[in-house]
Design brief:
It contains eleven helices and 24 strands. Helices cover 25% and strands 26% of the residues. The chain has three domains: 1-44; 70-276, Rossmann fold, CATH 3.40.50.300; 281-451, Ribosomal Protein S5, domain 2, CATH 3.30.230.10. The chain starts with 7 loop residues before the first strand and ends in a 6-residue tail after the last helix. Thymidine-5'-diphosphate (TYD) is lined by residues 96, 98-104, 135, 138-139, 267, 269-271.
Amino acid sequence: MAKGIASFSCSACGAVHKKWAGRCDGCGSWNCITEDAPLSSGPPSRSLGASRGRTVTLSDLNSEDTPPERTRSGMDEFDRVLGGGLVAGSAILIGGDPGIGKSTLLLQATAAFAKAGLSSIYISGEEASDQVRMRARRLGLHDAPLQLGAETNLRDILSTLDTLRPDLVVIDSIQTMWVDNVDSAPGSVSQVRACAHELVTFAKRRGTSVVLVGHVTKEGQIAGPRVVEHMVDTVIYFEGERGHQFRILRSVKNRFGPADEIGVFEMTGSGLSQVVNPSALFLSERDKPASGSVVFAGIEGTRPLLVEFQALVAPAPPGSPRRTVVGWDGGRLSMILAVLEARCGIAFSGMDVYLNVAGGIRVGEPAADLAVAAALLSAREDRPLPPDMVVFGELSLSGALRPVSQTENRLKEAQKLGFNRAVVPGRSKLGKVAGVDVIELADLAGFVARMGVGESH
Ligand code: TYD
Ligand code: MG
């Protein structure tokens, strides 16, 4: 079989097919499957002969290296998520739902970098320069030494950048850009991939930092930024709940710093303002104790963060009861309900369960398991927890509590915000840590017993 094997891919969703078809099985679109250009003719062993390439320079692991050159914008929440400032020549992707505030954030950040001395260009493919200028005026940024452009043709953008050689360029958004050698509409997988590739290559070649903005769509109709994630150095998501003013900037991948770092912002009438003490903000009004409300001492990235879990349990009409979750994983809620039933004899069948994380933040740490269980129990029994208590611990399926990382940091943050008691996993008789009375528990049944719920065994 000397013939090269042809492959076909869908230009809308990127699915690979063995043969051509009129309709893509992956996304259901019509007339979108095209033949891919062959990578090489003939088997690799023959085409890549040992004599053809040049020798690659190799070096030892302990060779001298220079730390990457970084610039701080002065917006601390943004700089921290980048790993301590913007690295020259890095490629960054900032994804988020449409309307969450990506353009606002980047206009503010680019203006800050421009003021910090970086020559910066902001290219909008979605708005005219006038519109961006108007927004900048509203944000009080009109005197920032920043160049604006409104363009979607990537070839023109790249030749402009090649002449100007800026330190930073923002492309808002990657889904509006197109190159003429790719035969599909802007926003399709092939266009997004090709444009991102060109821009990342430019960043590496010229030492310009490139920030790509990408819209995430739930249905994946338009190529989401996911196809670009592996090409860039840093992937940041801008999240938040509509109707809440808080926005979280979260790094999910960073070649130049820790991942999972967060920055907290508040959307105001004059743009995004930084939230320096987020813990205080995510706790709702807590004057009098309320059942179902539990404060979780969490860690987001490198810093502690207190958040409030709220649960509500109500009798369900016949049929399958509701399980509604906002800000926490639905599967994990089912697991905790199952552990409560199987290990502690506390059933939630016949009851609707609602779980919400106050303030619109999303919690992903398993360390919040115990806080969720506590909120459910407190709601079910209508018994509030002491208002000065924080809770954390991971729950295993056996009902045992597993220790979690950074216990002391969590307790310090709790103490700073006026919490004097904590329920944590373990049996090391810690007593008092960082000024907080620590109650250590080995399993969930121990917690149930402490709450005085009768049916536990
Ligand atoms: P935008 O940055 O355009 O979102 P994205 O680029 O992610 O699509 O922000 C859009 C929302 O932000 C819009 O609904 C209005 C709101 N907003 C404010 O509340 N205050 C402001 O100062 C600005 C500029 C926008
Ligand atoms: Mg925008």
